[in-house]
Amino acid sequence: MLTFNQGYNRAIDITGVQSTSSDVVNLKADINQGLRLLKNAARRYWTRQSKTANLVANQQFYQLPSDVVRVSEVTVTANGLVFPLKEVSSESKWNQLNIIPAVTINVPTYYFVRGYNEIGLWPTPSFSQTSGLNVAYEPRMADMSLDDVTSATGVFVNGDTTITDASAPFNEAMVGRWLNVTDGTDGYWYKIATFTSTSEIDIENSFMGVSGTRTYLIGQVPDVPEDYHMAGVYYAAYNFFLKRKDSATATMYYNMFKELRDQYKSTYANKSTGIVKDDISRLKYSIFSVPPNTMV
Q1: Chain centroid to CA 32: how far?
Q2: Backbone phi, then psi, for 28, in 5-degree steps?
Q3: Does residue 131 share a domain with residue 51?
Q4: How many Å is the Cα radius of gyration of the chain?
């Protein structure tokens, strides 16, 4: 695994840019952009997010999360049943749909994304339901720019998720970053789950290394599989040499970036490692039944 700061240092080595140079800003921006292009190639299935909102009676539009890039699936829950909604992609068709008189039981069957931050339901729900609206989406990647926390020493316990450090280096912003023991006793990375105090945090998974006082680092890590963390570095190097009209070197690093992107797309563009198809072509459902019943 490679932290953003480690990737940035790799880019410094490749390009020869001085850490005090104005090119540093461009390098960091290009690393982030390269990682975005990588994620977009596979439609972000690796980082799929899902959030819920309360359904409100007679309310048609709802605010989308701020990190939404594309909505992938929408469901509503009514009477303990989960109903998948079908997207209306055309604003004209959406407006035509809303001319249709409301039916007696207003369980939404369609959704429409308006602009970049709102989602509409049709028909408008006639009932309120706590956490009744669920939106799955491809998330926007937040820019990374922070240096790693290094030369820290904490107490780790095998099988436990709590890590303590008497020097109090922790803060709330570290939630979501990754931690790695650097003394050679454990080679795994752990995502920080919760912040308890400046001297105590919890990781998502139990510590698998040897118990004891250990040196560690904490850093921002790209939210793509670790095999592809160098993609942003290659993309930054490509832009650096392209601006200096070194087309041969620029092309070399672009091809290295493209190779990782293509591998990532091939491996992670599907939601699972295998697809099982059910023969449902013979089934037809009545839209007037709640829940749907098979029509013969």
Answers
A1: 14
A2: -65, -40
A3: yes
A4: 24
What is the pLDDT at residue 104?
56
Whether residue 154 sits in one domain with residue 117: no
Residue 181 in any domain: the answer is yes
Closest CA to 51 of 75, 34, 25, 84: 75
| Element at 97 (helix H, strand E) | helix 91-97
Based on the structure, what is the number of domains in the chain?
Answer: 2
Residue 246 and residue 94: Cα distance in Å, rounded? 51
Do 113 and 161 sit in the same domain of this protein? no
For 11, the 3-state DSSP assignment is helix
Q: What are phi and psi of 55, to 5 degrees?
A: -75, 135
Residue 291: cis peptide before it, omega within 30 degrees of 0: yes
A 10 A CB-CB count for 217 gives 19
Query: Is this prediction's pTM over 0.85?
Result: no
Binned at pLDDT 50, 70 and 90, residue 193 comes out as: very high
For 204-242, what is each residue's pLDDT tens digit?
Answer: 999 999 999 999 999 999 988 899 999 999 999 999 999
One-letter amino acid for residue 10 of the chain: R
Kindly report, residue by residue over 111-139, the tens digit of the pLDDT: 999 998 999 999 999 899 999 999 999 88
Q: Are residues 57 and 133 in the same domain?
A: yes
